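Posted in: Structural Biology > Protein-Ligand Complexes

Title: Requesting predicted complex, glycinamide ribonucleotide in pocket

I'd be grateful if someone could produce the 3D structure tokens for the following input. Sequence and ligand are given below.
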Amino acid sequence: MSYGPPLSEGARKLLLLGSGELGKEVVLEAQRLGVETVAVDRYANAPAMQVAHRSHVIDMLDPERLRGLILQEKPDLIVPEIEAIATGTLVELEQEGFKVVPTARAARLTMDREGIRRLAAETLRLPTASYRFADSLEEMRAAVLELGLPCVVKPIMSSSGKGQSVCRSEAEIESCWNYAMEGGRAKKKRVIVEGFVRFESEITLLTVRSVSGTAFCPPIGHVQQDGDYIESWQPHAMSEAQLREAERIALAITEALGGWGLYGVELFLTEDGVLFSEVSPRPHDTGMVTMATQDLSEFALHVRAILGLPIPGVRLLSPGASRTLKAARDSRSFAVEGLEQALAVPSAQVRVFGKPETRKGRRMAVALASGPDAESARAAARQAAECLSIRYDG
Ligand SMILES: Nc1ncnc2c1ncn2[C@@H]1O[C@H](COP(=O)(O)OP(=O)(O)OP(=O)(O)O)[C@@H](O)[C@H]1O
Ligand SMILES: NCC(=O)N[C@@H]1O[C@H](COP(=O)([O-])[O-])[C@@H](O)[C@H]1O
Ligand SMILES: [Mg+2]
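-- Reply #1 --
Done. Output follows.
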């Protein structure tokens, strides 16, 4: 394989749909290999736009706008970075000869919780939480009563816990429905109701499919608050049997989705076995820890895989951990403070994403640390993150 320099006729061009903190690292890794990068999102100055060769601001859920942009740019690789994209258009464009990462079908099925859950639970018969889908408050009430309380309610299309809540009593059914309606990204009034899983721990198993075959990264443990991750570490301690089962599930779902690229397979470890939760056909937020632990981060692995380059193996250089910094309120005038203190913590690193605005609960930066074991790395990452804060000037 060969290609010319970026911005030349013979350049290899990667177009990223979604330009957040994960895409920013994908762009940086692509640039290391001399690839031309184009970043797209619904707002200006998104993190990946700040490091890409060029950027565009469009509504990626609008099929016409999406098609128009892709025909204009004619990228070699279309790389979805978020779920909320007109994935039907990606399926069409793939049929017309464009390359969608890892496949347009994977983007379409994982865009809404129904597609991927039905594939995993009904087609592949993988173990999952019990679930029902509902299109109205009345249907949701019936689903909750059938599954039993407590249960978890999520909009069919959302991520990072947006619109997600735990329903603990019949009196809460209506407020959970309303919360899901406010938090969903598409206009669809559909929710998934899941039986509440009392897990011992939860992990992300990063699984990379490349010309060299399928490789698993050591498991990443994480803690979530309000449906969004606040802390992750690698490796997560689990039994041989649990790891074998986790890899079996990850292999089944990634083989079914196909293509080349890195997947983040989310799993619950319970007393009764390992359950599949969901999968991202792209680098995972909890996987940012790999920037402090692996010889090739999840972003480097994704880029290598999608370019068709070999991945002879994944090496864990050190245990490590990550801890997020989130905004407390909405602001357009703010500053991230405390880098001097955070970086004085031995082994600590910080990634400030550079998002132009804060929103309540929005992830703005992450602290990373390594250590002799995951526990000490967690302590260092926490210490570094606690030094960081956001000053609001408006
Ligand atoms: N059925 C369940 N039982 C118990 N906890 C759950 C259940 N479903 C989700 N959770 C908790 O909420 C978290 C977020 O859920 P999920 O991954 O489905 O949401 P998401 O919005 O897709 O998040 P992300 O985009 O960050 O992956 C899970 O990691 C887990 O901690
Ligand atoms: N769990 C998925 C996830 O972490 N996705 C990451 O968050 C960005 C959106 O952030 P924003 O909502 O702050 O704009 C996405 O673009 C992606 O990088
Ligand atoms: Mg998740």
